[in-house]
Q: What sequence folds into this?
C-alpha cells in the first residue's frame, strides 16, 4: 500500500504542515536529504500534550504525543517532497522527551512515532533513532521530533 493509503486506513488526515514558531524553516532539503526542524504535538493551533512525561503526563500520554508529533513530521515531509511516495527511507529520528530527573522510559514514549512511521511507510519507515530526556522544552511540549529522510526527485 502507499503511504497515503495507509494514512487513510489508519483514519489519519494530514494537517497543514505546521509553520515555524521562530526564526527558522520547518524543513530543508539538500540533495536527496530532507531534514525537519523539531516537530511538536500540535493539533491545529493547540499544544495537545504539554508537561513533563512521568510527572504531568503518563508514558501512554507521551506515546500519544510522539504519535501526534510524527503526524506533523509526515506533513512536513509531504510539503518538502510533494508526494509521500518520493520518500525513499526515513534515515533517522531524533526525539526529545520533556521529563523529570530519573525518568528512563524515553524509548517507550518515542515508540509512538516509530510505530506510526512503520505503519505509514512500511519498510521505508525503518530508521535509526536517538531518544533523549531533556529538562526544558519549547512551549512546554511533551515531545519534540526531528527526522532525516532520503527523497527522490
A:
Amino acid at each position: 500500500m502507499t503511504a497515503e493509503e495507509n494514512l487513510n486506513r489508519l483514519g489519519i488526515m494530514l494537517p497543514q504542515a505546521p509553520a515555524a514558531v521562530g526564526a527558522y524553516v520547518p524543513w530543508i532539503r539538500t540533495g536527496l536529504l530532507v531534514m525537519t526542524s523539531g516537530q511538536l504535538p500540535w493539533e491545529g493551533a493547540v499544544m495537545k500534550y504539554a508537561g513533563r512525561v512521568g510527572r504531568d503526563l503518563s508514558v501512554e500520554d507521551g506515546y500519544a504525543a510522539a504519535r501526534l508529533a510524527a503526524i506533523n513530521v509526515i506533513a512536513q515531509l509531504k510539503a518538502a517532497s510533494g508526494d509521500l511516495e518520493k520518500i525513499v527511507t526515513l534515515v533517522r529520528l531524533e526525539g526529545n522527551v520533556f521529563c523529570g530527573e530519573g525518568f528512563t522510559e524515553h524509548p517507550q514514549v518515542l515508540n509512538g512515532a516509530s510505530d506510526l512511521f512503520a505503519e505509514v511507510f512500511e519498510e521505508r519507515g525503518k530508521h535509526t533513532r536517538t531518544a533523549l530526556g531533556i529538562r526544558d522544552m519549547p512551549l512546554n511540549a511533551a515531545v519534540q521530533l526531528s527526522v532525516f529522510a532520503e527523497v527522490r526527485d
In short: Strands lie at 27-30, 33-36, 42-43, 46-47, 87-98, 128-134, 143-151. The chain is about 30% helix and 25% strand. The radius of gyration is 14 Å.
